[in-house]
Description:
Elements (H helix, E strand, L loop, with lengths): L1 H11 L9 E6 L5 E7 L7 H6 L7 H7 L3 E9 L2 E11 L8
Antiparallel strand pairs: 1-2, 2-4, 3-4
Amino acid sequence: MAGEITDNAAKHGQPFSDGCVILRLTVLEVGELLVQVDDADPCFPNFAPLNVGSLETLTGLGFAHRLGAKLDWHMLLEDGSPVGKTVQALLPGTWTEAA
């Protein structure tokens, strides 16, 4: 899933000046997995419909949603100016079905 979200950022976001997007994986104390991807595009058009709508596709955020991830995003700021965004998927600590 981390690869799908990172690929989504590379295809639909914007790389930073070094040509990269940034992936972070964090296992939280409660056992949840937090997947975060940063890219240099501070906008995320149509995020709300993606998050609450029907995500039937098995790529990118749709794949994460189908796995039970809670999706969110926020703008990255540097000295108060937008420099990009972070898209995140929070996965539950236990699985109720096989992935």
